[in-house]
Amino acid sequence: MACGFCEDALSNCVGTLLVDWVAKPVGRQFNYICCFHNNVEMLKEKKHELIGARARLQHKIEDAKRQLLAIEDDAGGLLSKADKILPNLETLESEIQKNKRCFNWCPDWIWRYRLSKKAMKNTLVICKLLVKFDQLGTVGYRSTSAIPTIEFLSSKDFTVSKSSKKAFDQIIEALQHDKVSMIGLWGMAGVGKTTLVREVGTHAEKFKLFDKVVIATVTQKPNAETIQDEIAKYLDFNMKNERGRKSRQEFWLKLQKLQKDKRILIILDDVWAKIDLKENIGIPFAEDHKGCKILLTTRRRQVCDAMECQRTIPLGCLEDNEARALFNAKAGLSDSSVASIKDVATKVIKKCQGLPIAIVTLASALKGKNLHRWEAAYRRLNNRRLDDIEDIDEKNAYLVLEVSFDYLNDKETKMCFLLCSLFPEDYEIYVEELVRYAWGIELYKGMGSIQVVRSEVLAAMDILKDSCLLLNCGERHVKMHDLVRDFALWIASNRTEFSFMIKSDVVESWPKDESFEPYKAVSFKTSWIVELPKRLLCPNLKILVLGGDEKMTTSSEFFEGMTALKVCALNSRLISPDAFQFQTNLTTLHLESCKLLDISVLGQLKKLEVLSFSCSDIKELPEEIGDLDNLKLLDLSYCEELQRIPSQLIRRLSKLEELYLHGCQLLKWATESTVRGERFASLSELNSFSNLIVLSLEVSSEDIPRDFVFCKLQRFYVCLGFGFSNFYGLKMDSEICPFSRSLKIEGSVIEACKQLLGDTKSLNLKDMVGYPNLVPSLESGQVVFSELTSLGIESCEHMKCLIDTTKQQVLTNAIPILQSLESLEVESCNEMQVLFQIAEVRSIQQGTSHRVSLQSLKVVRIDNCNKLRYLFPTSVAQSLGQLEELHISDCLELEEIIPKTEVSNINLQSLREVHVSGCNNLTSLSSLSHGQILEKLTTLRIRDCSRLEYTFPISMAEGLPQLNKVTLEGLPEFKGRDGNDIVLTLPSLQELEMRECTQFIISAEIQIAELRSIQEGPSHHVSLQSLKFVRTRNCNKLRYLFPTSVAQSLGQLEVLHISDCLELEEIIPKTEVSNINLQSLREVHVSGCNNLTSLSSLSHCQSLEKLTTLTIRDCSRLEYTFPISMAEGLPQLNKVTLEGLPEFKGRDGNDIVLTLPSLQELEMRECTQFIISAEIQIAELRSIQEGPSHHVSLQSLKFVRIHNCNKLRYLFPTSVAQSLGQLEVLLISDCLELEEIIPKTEVSNINLPSPREVFIAEVRSIQEGTSHHVSLQSLKVAIIDNCNKLRYLFPTSVAKSLGQLENLKISYCLKLEEIIPKTEVSNINLQSLRKVHVKACKNLTSLSSLSHGQSLEKLTKLRIRDCSRLEYTFPISIAEGLPQLNKVTLERLPELKGRDGNDIVLTVPSLQELCVADCPQLTSFIISDKIQVSLFICVFTLSTMLVGGIERVEE
């Protein structure tokens, strides 16, 4: 029965194959079945080769991008092709692995035939692709627009000066230099070093110079661990481990591992002395890892020298005119300002001496002041003497800073400024820490709540930032410039009216023999203090801030003398049980990242009002904490080990105002399922507080008690079910929770937060079920979301809209809904049909549609909402005046953004960017044009919208004045309107990319940028005067790009890419007009345009003076590039690539681009019709032969690659060959008719002094001509492949110049008899030759011609294969001439016998690896007993092998 089944299977197979076998050779069809396994194995082998080639190309592209090089089109194309093929191979391999069989034993012949055929087809495709990978040249090129200028790059707060611009340019140039690993920037305090390197760092990362940019501050007393921590946080790893802290070696290895894949720039700010980065910090750079570079700043030039910086760059002060411009801008002065004030300003500016920080702070302080205040400020500057300051530059800065300080209105603001000096240099000060310090010292007396004090401190920070005494560095963070910090410490010590001396420093040990009695605040940052002093006398001390090491214990003896202590902040300490037993006056206790042993004693601190255990090692909150009757703030954030808060403890803290519990991922709460007796706190205890106004909390949805509802709060960060925030994630949401009103809710527990919804500013909902909308479903009888600024909805499967105003109760509200919303994100809500269900959707003009107002909305992102038909109803769209960004993706049913309407007062006046992709029902963006103008729109990207026909209607011609970047991709129905599209005609357009717009065509009547309505007169003429970049791809119906009238405006066009436009006939249509000027055109890349016959249409202007790069590929009808009239019009063209041009012949036997003296790189591949006639030779046109003055020179040519140009008989005529003095690389392959590189001549002055690499394939001869005139003195690599008519390679005269030759590879040269012909001359010296590989040279009998010099002293590897007549390698006379030969391979040499029963290469004492296979005539050989090293031997088909004197034979 089984046999019958197999017969049926075989008959089916025969039927399936019959058609193929009738039409194709039968043997090939049987081979698909018989060679199934071989085909599969070959496919796997080629697949691995393709993966490797793709990886190598990817590395080259990434390296080019890091160097800010633009990427060649063919490189990106190859990568894309590989990416398309490889997934198909995975599918095919998976299908093969199924191993279909009949009853598990009879092969399925149909399956085997089909898959074998597929495998072979894919193998051939891969082989062709691998050839292109091998032939690929450089992947990147230098673009003059790659690095924007500092004026373009700089942020609004950065002051660009002549000095800073020069320093910026020098730093960027040095960062791109491979041999520069450390750069030093030096200059005086306050000159702007830190600001400049931060700008460099920002843009080095932005423009892909580096994958990561790390900034760490070193300071006068560098702390290795602090620097490591700062670097680690940027690179997302933690230096702490279970043993305490990772070692320097682990830090080193981590950086090395990162740098294998990423380039890292480490900026070390404020270096004061030499520091060993490798030994002290553990930073691998330079030779240890070239992916890491160091940029340091310092006040002292000698530090740069000590650190051995390869580049030392100074940063000077502002010049007089720059100082005046900066001062006037900050002080609000102009030409119309009062003359007397401007006179005083001139004197003040002179006092600032060009120091930016002095100018900015003083000008900000005097802004808006009257003449008397200006004069008073100058008198103070002029009369003040700071004799106790040693540095004269700092004196000048202190003078102006003091004036700014004195202009602060109230003492509290000045004290907040002084408190900032408690933090280390360059520290990002979290304002909340200042709030808690200010509360502890009662800075704002009479203010009853911490929230009110917080508001006052925030106001003080704003005043200080406006006065430029503090720097803004993110949400709720400020920073002090190091000079300003020094000034603050100086003020605290010298101005008696504050009576608040501060000691703040980074120390290695506790200062000895120093009295702390006068100080009211002490701050030490250190991890080196081994032991703290005992009974330290500090009777006036109110604030103590101390960092340290968790291994160092802090005990009560240290605090005994601090009887007045109000604020204590300890970081990374080991806290003993009795530490604070005497500190009964403590008001604020801040224990961050501390190891806490037994803290029950804290229950005795009855005056304690602020208590923080943030990030500390605490597993359970002791019951005694409940005794703190006056506690107003409890912070347990990021206590990752905290598991339990005792039941009812929270309830006992009756005065508690603020509670922080975010980041406590192990904390358990009592629920209905809690086992009796476990006594965990319950969330319901939170509602027992009458004073609680601030809460942060992250809990699982399961921990919410049934029917629990959060009480009303002023500030909150409540995250239910979203997971836990990570402390090492920078600036997470929860860090600003004292200032936020944020809800993140996953699942259906939103009812617990219903009292918070009305005040919420940020709301994120995920996986919420049972709610068809937000309003009215969540309204509960009150207005909600009036203050909401950010809304995110994800995977809420029941939600059909956000707001439904069709319900009667919504229409009764007087306040517009969502009026404060700034950001809206909706993702994966597949049931959502509209965002806003407006009551009068069918007849918009009849009702009060203004109920929903999005007047503050700036950013909208809608993704994967498949049932949405439109986004904004007309009534809502009228309120979108602030909308800046619109992102829509994968909304398959979306038909319009705004539905059709007669209403015209929709004004999207702020819209800057529109991104649309994957919206297959969208036909145009016309609904955005109701207002007739999108005056700020700069960027438009539309991708993969299968039905989109055009962008905007013609009526928008004047309504897009700033649109400069347009991308249209994957739009198969895109045709434009009336033969064009409005976005392609704009004078503001700078970058245009069109890809896969297969239906787009410019009609004969209505051409691009020449609409019917515009043709009536010159006043309506369309200009593309700003266009710089054009990329057009796969637009198959385009016949030309630019009509003549538009082409006249293309003076700024720099880059032109055209690919796969099959019908393109011309770039600019034929015309008699000659005033087309493409004066800025630098690059032209054309590929896959099969109807294009030349680029002559670009030559209307007779000159392309800036054109440097020309690439033309796969244009099957292209015959030539430019006409001969352009001979003088391409003065800078230096790189030409011509590939896959089967009809390319040039004009009159040549092409103009091959004759240019500026040419440096030339690649010609698969130009099978190109031929240099006997009369008209390459670089010798008829029109140029008339006199010597017209002689063509290729004096700049360095690189030539010629492949598959089958009609070429030679390359360089003699006259041109004389100019090839710079030629370095010459690669020739598969040129079947090539007879000579340079034709035979009597000319004797041809000299090729520079060649480094020669590849010659299928050349008839390079022999009897003028070889004695050629020198290959720089040649290092010679690769000769498939040159079947060659009898030898190098004539004797040339061989004498091969002293630098290192690598020689010869393969498939069937007639090769000798490498160098026989000669009596003995002064041939191949002194550098290291490797010789010979394969399939069937006429070669030995390598004796290489031994003319009697010694190959550096030869280490010899491999000979498939040479059927080879009898021996070298003669015995060279026995002592192979001192380093250690690896020999001899395979398939049927005539190899050696000389005198042995072969010399088998006897050398240096031999380490030997492989002999299929050498049947080598009947025996003896390995010399002089060999004293380990030997690997692989021998096949040998009858005898004698081995003697070998200590270790491995195999």
From TrEMBL:
GO-annotated biological processes: defense response
Coiled coil spans: 40-74
Ranges of residues in domain NB-ARC: 166-332
GO terms of molecular function: ADP binding; ATP binding
Keywords: ATP-binding, Coiled coil, Leucine-rich repeat, Nucleotide-binding, Plant defense, Repeat
Residue stretches making up the Disease resistance protein At4g27190-like leucine-rich repeats domain: 849-891, 893-945, 1015-1061, 1063-1115, 1185-1231, 1266-1309, 1311-1363
Family per record: Belongs to the disease resistance NB-LRR family.
Protein name: Disease resistance protein At4g27190-like isoform X2
